[in-house]
Design brief:
Elements lengths: L1 H20 L10 E8 L6 E2 L16 E12 L2 E10 L5 E9 L6 E7 L6 E8 L2 E8 L4 E9 L3 E8 L5 E8 L3 E7 L4 E7 L6 E6 L14 E3 L2 E8 L7 E10 L4 E10 L10 E10 L2 E9 L5 H10 L3
Antiparallel strand pairs: 1-2, 1-20, 3-4, 4-5, 5-6, 7-8, 8-9, 9-10, 11-12, 12-13, 13-14, 15-16, 16-17, 17-18, 19-20
Length: 315
């Protein structure tokens, strides 16, 4: 009995220490999780106190290494969060999963909704002409894939394949006078822009930032606010996931593209779930309040997050 009491007290000590220090003592190192930021301005987003809101431990239909690349859409008072799940089904491969909730702070993982024999990520979901579509990164297959919901949000079918033979990453769409697609050509190591009137074909527009790791990869949905167009950029100048910068697109038409740096919008916190990496953001604006779904990477050990998830049931 004496020994059991000592063991329980030691466990309690480690749990309390982890909560205070925000560091884990033992366990495997983790990777990406999903978090929430919020604020009254796009320029002043603060992390939600109960981050992360979704981790690999919430995935219950496959064994997952991590969850990342969040994109969110609201429809009929429900929030639908689409994510990359790094699945160990056959090998460590990206598949697309979904979490749903009527509260953006309480999204419940459901299941994998799209999987292929090759890696998928960056589920850029959007609505067009009363239909839901999703561009996916499928660079491992050397093409760019557009999926269409046959029964939103769980059933999707391949609608169109573009740019076969190209290894592309992070396809990001914005509609102005027409659609403009920003995508990274991994072979050229450049940001390429394409245009389209109806998403049935893509016309090459221009190429930018070749070999510039500070701004040639997109880091989330292009966001239009108060008439200004913001592009979020993975700044990987020193390492992958170093931070996310915000640029304002000042000119975009068939003949030209110009943008200017505004500020760094996300950077690792140096402790906890996003201590080491941040590389994706998707923003929703509701009633003059801004909510940003983000991902963060950590070198912390995983037991911290298991314990945190358990404690949230009682705190």
């Amino acid at each position: 009995m004496y020994i059991i009491t000592i063991i329980l007290l030691l466990i309690l000590f480690f749990i309390i220490y982890q909560q205070i220090s925000n560091k884990a003592i033992w366990g495997q190192r983790k990777k990406y999780s999903i978090g929430l930021y919020e604020g009254n301005s796009i320029f002043d987003l603060k992390p939600y106190a109960k981050n992360p809101i979704l981790t690999k431990f919430d995935v219950n239909d496959v064994t997952a290494s991590f969850v990342a690349d969040p994109f969110i859409i609201k429809e009929d008072n429900q929030y639908y969060l689409f994510i990359e799940v790094k699945s160990k089904r056959k090998r460590d491969i990206g598949e697309i999963g979904i979490a749903i909730g009527d509260n953006i702070k309480n999204l419940k993982y459901q299941k994998i909704i799209i999987k292929e024999d090759f890696h998928l990520s960056y589920p850029y979901v959007f609505k067009y002409k009363d239909n839901f579509f999703m561009f996916l990164e499928s660079g491992e297959n050397k093409d760019l894939r557009l999926y269409k919901a046959s029964n939103f949000p769980f059933e999707w079918k391949l609608h169109k394949t573009f740019l076969e033979g190209k290894k592309l990453a992070d396809p990001t769409l914005v509609y102005l006078d027409k659609f403009y697609l920003f995508v990274t050509d991994m072979d050229k190591n450049s940001l390429d822009i394409y245009s389209s009137k109806d998403l049935e074909s893509l016309t090459f527009h221009s190429s930018h930032y070749q070999n510039d790791a500070s701004k040639n990869r997109n880091g989330g949905r292009i966001f239009i606010d108060n008439g200004k167009i913001y592009r979020f950029v993975q700044n990987c100048k020193n390492y992958y996931g170093e931070k996310v910068d915000m640029y304002e697109i000042t000119k975009l038409d068939e003949n030209s593209f110009e943008e200017k740096f505004i500020q760094t919008i996300l950077s690792p916190s140096k402790k906890g779930w996003n201590s080491y990496q941040m590389h994706n953001i998707d923003i929703l604006k509701e009633n003059n309040k801004y909510f940003a779904i983000v991902d963060g990477g950590s070198k912390e050990k995983e037991n911290f997050y298991i314990i945190n998830k358990f404690l949230r049931k009682f705190l």
